[in-house]
Amino acid sequence: MPVHRRQPSIELLEFMGVVRENGNEQASLPPVHTPLSYDYVLVAKTIDDQERTAFKKQIEYIDELKKKNFKVTKIIDDDLVFYGIQAPKEIFEKYRYLLKVSDACNWSSDQNIVPLSTRIRIVHFILNHTPIRTGEGLRDLMKMRVFEARFCLHEKKKQRELKESWARWTACLQGQPITAVRNYFGEKVALYYLWLGWYTYLLIPPALIGIVVFLYGLSFFSSSPLIKEVCEADTVMCPLCDKGCKVWRLSDTCTYAKVSLLFDNNGTVLFAMFMAVWATLFLEFWKRHRASYVCEWKVSDWCEEEEELILEIVNNVNCEPKEFRHSYLRSTLVLICVTVMILVIIGLTHALVVFRVIAAGFLAKESWEFLSNHSNTGAMMLGAVMHYLIITVMTRVNRIVAMKLCGIEKTRSFATTEKSFTVKMFTFQFFTYFSSLFYVAFFLGRINGHPGDYVRIAGKWRLEECHPSGCLTDLFIQMTIIMVLKQTISNVFEFTGPWLCRFLKRRRTQKLQRKCAHCYLKDDSEVKNGSELCDNCKLRDWHSNYRLNDVDSFSLFSEFLEMVIQFSFTTIFVAAFPLAPLLALINNVFEIRLDAIKMVTLERRMVPKKTNDIGVWIDILEAVGVLAVIANGLVIGVSSDFIPRLVYRYRYGPCANGTVADIDCMVGYINNTLSIARMDGKNNTFSSNQMITSTGLNVTHCSYKDYRSNEDYSLTPQFWLILAVRFAFVILFEHVLVICKFIAAWFVPSAPMQVKNDRLFDKLKRLKEELRSFEA
Q1: Which GO terms describe its cellular component (predicted)?
Q2: Looking at the DSSP assignment, which residues form a beta bridge with residue 137?
Q3: DSSP3 helix / strand / coil % (the chain, rounded to 5)
Q4: Separation of alpha carbons 563 and 542, rounded Å
Q5: How far apart are CA 371 and CA 356, in angstroms?
Q6: How big is the CA angle at 407 (ends 416 and 335), to the nearest 5 degrees?
Q7: Cα-based torsion angle of the residue sequence 556, 431, 491, 393 in order, rounded to the nearest 10 degrees
Q8: Residue 741 to residues 736, 744, 752, Cα–Cα distance (Å)
Q9: N or C end of the chain, less CB within 10 A?
């Protein structure tokens, strides 16, 4: 069946929305964009047996499309059958008319084309909602393998333009052609890149401040009395495990103490406060930034539900709308399943704790002295790697479970399904990523007991302890390994996977290109005037798209999820890792181009979708911003040694009486945080072999980090004072920052005044045009 391209004529002028009155051309409705030769392509396996059910369903579906006046071109190539689908122009005329009279319309007299991305979206909707006699739609036929693939075609010229201006590594430090991306991939993809670019741009201030905070901690390397006290101490510390571990000297962990001070200093408190306010400002300024583009694209009043109704009417005039329904039984069942899944994920966190405890015991028994002395740090690193492996596996499991739960809900539309899936998937992923971090931040070293009464897992394995310099370094190690591994390894696989697949499939495409080389000699004007391309040229184009990696409705979701998880890392525990914004900034500079190259050259064209916001992601980001305030307050008040140092400085240290001393006010702090366990016959917690130092000295007592009496292990008054100050600080910190967040949200308007005024005048102009049309 021959398919022609552009045929300029009087009919075409009418088709393009231009009518003649007294010899003058006058624009009416926004015209439909001149179509491609084919809007969509279906691919199926060649079936010789015409009696097979798959063959009959295939033919029946194509016949249903023909009944709707779709043009279908069939080309057989070896074991594949290609169906080129072209929709009739009447469908798009109905769509633009219904859109014009709906409340979701933003048409204006100067907007004279319907984007090609809209055309593809309409055809995609109709194909998915065209059932055969037995009730199966295209999605069902795809699952039944009646059709192997479906895709819309890349436009070579626009694809080449995007590749030259955007989808290349050398453009990493250049801006993004957002409007061009929107015209090609639709508003949904464009808003993702707009958000990602804005997020990356606003990461520059926290990245720079994080470097300053890091350098501030670095400046204490040679002058801090805390480091000197650790490095020069002769204190003997208690064994870290029951078997194989011996007493050790505090000075052996001098390097660990220096690293701790890099991230646990006064600068991190101010930086955490800054990041909490930054998260709010980022979201408010994003709303303004988005509003400018949404207004320019004329989708400010766009409504997803209304467009869905329009598409259903265009597909079937006699359609019935899907009613809104809610089932308390299904919602309760889904809630129970979500709770069970979260408990399973938390259970994996407990398994990680057991793994670290066992690993620490094994490392402590090693003959290599360095590994034996740093058994806890080694166990923490191994646990972080194991955590990453669990994340990799659970990501697939979480996706399957989230999809099953969405199936139980029986949502009304795909948009509702996508929103529900997004919330569930993010919840599962958040617990998968952060459960272990929350344990390290708020429980590690605080529930392990004391000599003579250690807390044990299954009555066998002793829980881990914190270093005398604090627990924040353990959180830093965990975050660094997970964040670096996730960003580097996932990006490598994200790019090399599609590239390798395309490389392996290129031989077939190259053969087709050589067969149809004579088609390349045709002048562009010949094609525009309707010169028909040969079957080889069509097949070459369809094959080149078919060989690309497949995309689905959730392809963009994966990119968003990755970035929102990164945003969570950057804000929630930033007090423990001030360099997180810098790592995120470096990653995102490459992430933008990686996603662009993958989307433009390595994957099939994503079906363009219209929207005016990033959807439920904005609510998730706001929730993360609130959680960041709470988490950072708890990290500073509970996890770090900021409060104990403050109490010591003004209550127990050399400067407590207000007298001027020649020594630093923090001298003696480390020794003040240690309690002593004596082996006097009554409390023989450790064996005699464990009480021998590395130099062979037999000791009768050892120290451990806690505020307890040396006699009966009861908690000292200093412990209760520090606990009270911790709670007071957390409450004050969170209330101050929440107030700052509300003030920032109120102070920054959600849309620029120019945008609001433009919308006002545009709406007034359209109303006047309607009134003139009514009076005429």
Answers
A1: plasma membrane
A2: none
A3: 60, 10, 30
A4: 33
A5: 14
A6: 85
A7: -100
A8: 9, 5, 20
A9: C
Q: In this predicted model, what pLDDT tens digit does every residue of 112-121 receive, in sequence order? A: 455 677 888 8
Under 8 Å CB-to-CB from 658, ≥6 apart: which residues? none
Residue that is written with structure tokens 């990602």 in the block:
196
Amino acid symbol at 52 = R
Between CA 759 and CA 765 the distance in angstroms is 10
What's the pLDDT at 481? Answer: 82
Separation of alpha carbons 274 and 279, rounded Å: 9
Amino acid at 521: L
Q: Which two tokens stand for residue 130?
A: 């065209």
Give CA–CA dist 109/94, Å, rounded.
18
Which tokens go with 505? Answer: 């499939």
Low-confidence ranges of the chain (pLDDT < 70): 1-37, 102-115, 222, 244, 361, 364-376, 469-470, 497-499, 501-533, 659-661, 680-684, 776
Q: How far apart are CA 642 and CA 650, in angstroms?
A: 13
Phi/psi at 24 (5° precision): -105, 140
How does DSSP classify residue 584? H
pLDDT of amino acid 677: 86
Q: What angle do CA 55, 59, 61 make, to 5 degrees?
A: 115
Q: What's the one-letter identity of residue 356? A: R
Token code pair at residue 143: 């699952």
Q: Check if the beta carbon of residue 425 is closer than 8 Å to that of residue 418.
A: no
Residue reference for tokens 């798009």? 92
For residue 692 the two structure tokens come to: 């021998």
Say how far apart CA 139 and CA 145 lie, in whole Å. 10
Tokens of 69: 């006046």
Return phi, psi of residue 189, to 5°: -70, -40
Distance CA 10, CA 287 (A): 45
Strand-pair partners of 237:
248, 703
The amino acid sitting at 203 is L
Phi, psi of 426 (to 5 degrees): -65, -40
Cross-strand partners of 675 = 704
Amino acid at 167: A
Question: Looking only at Cα atoms, what is the longest distance across the chain?
Answer: 114
Q: How far apart are CA 252 and CA 700, in angstroms?
A: 20
| Residue closest to 669 by CA, chosen among 686, 684, 652 | 652
User: First-to-last CA distance in the chain?
Assistant: 45
The pairing of strands 40-45 and 71-77 is unpaired
Task: Report residue 31 as tokens.
Answer: 């015209």
Spatial neighbors of 139 by CB under 8 A, at least 6 apart, are 128
Is the CB of residue 304 less than 8 Å from the CB of residue 611?
yes
- Residue 134's φ and ψ, nearest 5 degrees, are -85, 0
Length of the chain: 776
Q: Are 189 and 596 a contacting pair, CB within 8 Å? A: no
Edge to edge, what strands does the sheet with 236-237 contain?
248-249, 236-237, 701-705, 674-678
Helix (H, G, I), strand (E, B) or coil at 83: strand
What was the pLDDT predicted at 449?
81
pTM for this prediction: 0.85
Token reading at 454: 């250690």
Q: How far is CA 720 from CA 171, 647, 657, 730, 733, in A?
A: 57, 11, 21, 15, 20
Amino acid, res. 413: S
Q: Measured between alpha carbons, how far is 456 from 163 in angstroms, rounded to an integer?
A: 59
Quick one: tokens of 580?
């997180």
Alpha carbon distance 674, 54 (integer Å): 76
Residue from 614, 611, 605 nearest 185 by CA: 605
